[in-house]
Design a protein that fits this description.
455 residues; alpha/beta; Urease, subunit C, domain 1; nine-stranded mixed sheet; binds zinc ion
Length: 455
């Protein structure tokens, strides 16, 4: 008999064309899907060609789908959940950055553990962390949890940034090189990206140096781009061009570029994104305070678009909720005006969260349940009143499902959650340690005056 690590039988499977097939099997070995297809293909075979596996999950009431990719978040902001809603702008300058500056290696590691717990329990199997402090401490936690991630340092030399986060150009590049050398491709699950926080939060020297180095070495680069109208206006005032136009004309637009937000884009910028296949990442709930992107136009231009949560401070790390929020916003802005209810169909939303996410991670064989692809998959419990009965499982995934419906999770071929119990981290201990931090951390014990003028 053939051996594999995990054998899934009789399940429903979300196919790459976003249809659902019943009675499917998935055989997983050494991080990959070694075979998948109709259950009959397996049961009709001679015994010596059947699979044996240590873990067998035989359940016709669950839907297996690719794990979700949170293509933009800050795991260093995990303790800010509930602290940002209704705050006046600009939140990242006034609250997020001063808070991150207060983290130690130990508290960053705990923040990473808590973010990991929340992500796995919400069906997120991979993510792009847009950068925070103490990245090595966080990286060790993701390795232990077995999460797939792209990591980077928060990199800024802005004059208003707290000293502990500000870095000069001559020190920024060696720091990024060190992280890359130590963690890129580690255990087959971690990647390292070069980044700057945003163009306006950096000197011209810093962002040009980082992007030039990324371009020269073929390393993926990441940056917040075209997020606020005021940021774009300030950029035009300072540099005489819009951000993407400047990067292209200056020859420093990275070859592999993940651009978070991409809300305020001009038509010539959209053409630049399409030409260079820039990976755009919207963060729907967070973006509601900033603007609405021209996503139908971006998709029509062939730009890969993914979703991010922007971190737990913006309502948690549930990408099902982000898809739903995005569908509402797209319909109000682009659908109603053109009397087109199909402006952002469920299949498109799901493929943005899955294949769009895989593109933000620069992983060709991710985001699909197909023979040869990486085994990052999740199981949705369909046997619940809010998901059953349904005229379309795919529509219900977008309209009605939430992270709490995820029953099992497999990352890089390893079971990390079974029946909602985490197998690679002690969830109870993480919550206990977090409660202790929330009771002692200065941000939560001295709200008045501690982070700028927060109170
Ligand atoms: Zn962000």
């Amino acid at each position: 008999m053939k051996t594999c690590d995990i054998l899934i039988r009789n399940g429903r499977v979300l196919k790459p064309d976003m249809t659902v097939a019943k009675k499917q099997f998935i055989a997983i070995k050494n991080s990959r899907i070694v075979e998948t297809g109709d259950e009959s293909l397996l049961s009709d075979r001679p015994e010596q060609e059947q699979y044996t596996a240590q873990t067998v999950i035989d359940d016709s009431r669950i839907l297996w789908m690719p794990g979700l990719t949170d293509a933009h978040l800050h795991t260093s902001q995990q303790f800010l959940k509930g602290s940002l809603l209704d705050e006046r702008p600009v939140i990242w300058k006034r609250i997020n950055v001063p808070f991150e500056a207060s983290l130690t290696e130990e508290t960053m590691a705990l923040s990473a553990r808590l973010a990991g717990v929340e992500m796995i329990k919400n069906g997120t199997t991979s993510f792009v962390d847009a950068g925070g402090p103490h990245v090595e401490a966080a990286a060790e936690e993701y390795l232990k949890m077995g999460m797939r991630a792209a990591l980077t340092w928060q990199t800024t030399d802005g004059p208003k940034v707290p000293d502990s986060l500000r870095i000069e150009t001559k020190a920024a590049l060696p720091r990024q090189e060190r992280l890359y050398k130590n963690y890129h491709n580690k255990n087959g699950i971690l990647q390292v990206y070069y980044s700057v926080t945003s163009l306006m939060a950096c000197s011209e020297e810093l962002f040009r140096t980082v992007f030039e180095a990324a371009k020269e070495k073929g390393i993926t680069a990441e940056c917040h781009m075209n997020e606020y109208a005021s940021e774009v206006m300030d950029f035009i005032e300072k540099y005489g061009e819009r951000p993407f136009e400047y990067l292209e004309h200056a020859g420093v637009l990275p070859q592999n570029f993940v651009a978070a937000h991409c809300i305020m884009l001009s038509e010539p910028e959209i053409e630049i994104l399409a030409q260079h296949q820039v990976r755009a990442v919207h963060c729907p709930f967070s973006n509601c305070g900033k603007g609405v992107p021209e996503t139908p136009r971006l998709l029509a231009a062939g730009i890969p678009v993914a979703f991010g949560s922007d971190g737990a401070g913006h309502g948690g790390l549930d990408l099902f909720r982000e898809m739903r929020a995005f569908r509402c916003v797209m319909n109000v802005l682009h659908g109603i005006g053109t009397a087109n209810p199909q402006i952002m169909p469920a299949k498109t939303l799901l493929s943005m969260a899955l294949e769009g996410g895989a593109k933000a991670l620069m992983e060709e064989h991710l985001g699909r349940i197909e023979t040869g692809c990486l085994a990052d998959i999740i199981a949705i419990d369909l046997d619940q009143p809010h998901l059953f009965a349904t005229g379309s499982v795919v529509n219900s995934l977008v309209e009605s499902a939430c992270g709490a419906d995820v029953k099992h999770s497999v990352i890089h071929g390893k079971l990390v959650m079974k029946n909602r119990e985490l197998l690679t981290i002690d969830e109870e201990k993480v919550l206990y340690d977090t409660e202790k931090i929330m009771g002692t951390h200065p941000y939560f014990t001295k709200p008045a005056g501690w982070c700028g003028d927060r109170a």
